Amino acid sequence: MHGLHNAERLFPGDIAELERLGQDNMRGFRETLERYKIDAHETWGGELTVAIGDERFADVKAEYELHDKYGHNVELLDREAVQAQVKSPLFAGACWSKDLSGTVQPALLAWGLKKAAISLGVRLHEFTPMEKVERQNGVLKVFTHDGSVKARKILLCTNAFAAGEKRIKRRVAGIRDRILATEPLTDEQMERVGWTQRQGVYDTRTQLNYMRRTKDNRITFGGRLAYYYDGTDNSDPAGERVIDPYLRLAGAFQKTFPQLDDLRFTHAWSGPIALTTRMAVHFQEYMQGDMVWAGGYSGFGVSTSRFGARVGLAKLDGQDLPELKMDFAKTMPGIIPPEPFRWIGAQITLYALDTADEKGGWRHAWLRFVQALGFPLS
Hints:
Blueprint: H1 4-10, H2 15-35, E1 47-52, H3 57-69, E2 74-77, H4 79-85, E3 91-97, H5 106-119, E4 132-136, E5 139-143, E6 148-151, E7 154-156, H6 166-169, E8 173-182, H7 187-193, E9 200-203, E10 210-213, E11 219-226, H8 244-256, E12 265-275, E13 282-286, E14 291-295, H9 301-317, H10 327-330, H11 341-359, H12 362-372
Parallel strand pairs: 1-9, 7-14
Antiparallel strand pairs: 1-3, 2-3, 4-5, 5-6, 8-11, 8-12, 9-10, 10-11, 13-14
């Protein structure tokens, strides 16, 4: 649900039950890794939401109070305490959520799940994009470029990669998210940073950055969103091969960890997230309910997609699942304006997000206006 504040904003009557379901989902996620012996480099050190500067400490305190309200094992850290966890001159405090939070290497997770599915008898056909679906003789037929598959029911799990489909596109925008990875840190460099608990870290910049410590002691550092006019139809837009946005992301890294000025970056990449006005999973039904798209995770789909798939399958099978009676399963996010208004609005908004902390002025007023229209920005 992209954070407790977002869930409470959207589904105030369901928030307690959603929290319980979310915790059950994470337990199931961990159990799946153990059952199928999937090594995804998982760590369970929790999650740190760090305040960038003293003026943002109130944000993490509010985060702490909300997590504490719903029974999380959470700790509020002042400047000294957060520096004992992760050393950065920017970090003025943090909310540390300790239970059922951690990090995984998503490629290893995907490959591990693939191996587990094959072991259960699932047949996978890769590099076979769906071109169309038709109903023939009472079943659905999926056409690809060189073959077809027949099925009684279909669950679409393509998330942002389906954001160019005209019906899905009305409510979903394919936003690019960028990330850098450093070379492995030496033991001496790691001592400059600390980070012995390997928590996942988010900060409170207006356009947030997030960071992880990998198994081989690299630091991955993400942020700096982008939107292209053809971004929902193009999985590799040319604009992502321009170096400037990655240099700016590297600059944010250097401000966060100036003690690592001798560290090099070895990798840079981006990928699409399926952003919606509610920043939470929703379900779109087609073919008289025999085909369901589950998506719109807005960047938080690694574990939540397990939950979304379970609810989507229940929809397809007509199960009497309690979750199907909850608002999140029965409602849809708002419609996003079409092109070119979508592109124009995205460019103004992303520029404002990127420069609001540094330059202020009209940018904060614009971001408040966008939020008033129903587009959460944090």
